[in-house]
Every structure is written in structure tokens, then in C-alpha cells.
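Tutorial handout. Part one gives the primary structure; part two gives the three-dimensional structure as C-alpha cells.
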Amino acid sequence: MAIEKGQQAPAFTLYNSEKSKVSLADFNGKNVVILFFPLAFTSVCTAELCSVRDNITLYNNSNAQVLGISVDSLFTLDKYKNEQNLNFPLLSDFNKTVSTAFGVLYDTFPAFEMAGVSKRAAFVIDKDGVVQYSEVCPTPGDQPDFAAIQETLASLN
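Part two.
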């Protein structure tokens, strides 16, 4: 079951696409939007993340750091980030620990019967590390409700 609104966000440290460690604690005092996505280079993931890229000022103006997380390797995420000109960190949950902690790991991904792929999900975590928005998309083809994410961020500032 996914982490819900009102719960403390699980602490984590992952490598980003630049091969540096990034921890949730690095953003204490700042709102954080975590976007779990199934796989780099797929059409829905690309549309989702490029939409965030194109609207990054909305997040910046809300004192929010966006983090994209998938089970792809940091090498794959580096290539993907560069090709799509993404302007926020992508973190590799290759060992699936964070997806598991947040309750957003497929036992079997609906397409291609792959085990251990992150569900598409969005979480807004406030400055104190408390989850203020939690959404797990019903299917990998659905995107998070970005209007609701923006409303949540606006209520935190």
C-alpha cells in the first residue's frame, strides 16, 4: 500500500544521473515533489517529465524541488535526462528500495511481464517531511493530476 497523506515520508538516499548521492534530507526546509515513473524512453513517461520540464517555474515559484525516480540505471537516466533536456534531478532506484518503501512497486508490470518496475505515482512532501499529497496512477498510461499537485503546493506556501 502506498504512503498516504499525513504520513512521514520514508528517508532515502539514491544516486542521481550525475553519479552523486541525493537524500530526501538534502531538501529539509523545502517542499519536494517526487514523481515515480516506470521506465525512461517510453512515451507516457517522456510526456509526463517533459511537461514538468516545461512548467518548472511553477515548482520553483512554490519553493519545491522536483525529483524523478525510476528503477532504471543511473547511466540510462543520464542519457534520458540529456536527450530530453530535463531540468530536475532523476534518481536511480535500481535496487527498488525507495519504490518499495513508498509502496509503488509493481509485482509484475502490465506490459511485457517485467517484475519490479515503479508505478507512476506522485507525492508532495512538505518542508517537515510529511506527505501532503499522494497519488498512484491506476495504469501506467495515466499521468498524475498536476493541477492537484499545484493546488497542494500553493496551500503549503
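Part three, for discussion. The longest helix spans residues 43-54. The beta strands are 13-16, 21-23, 31-36, 64-70, 90-92, 121-125, 131-136.
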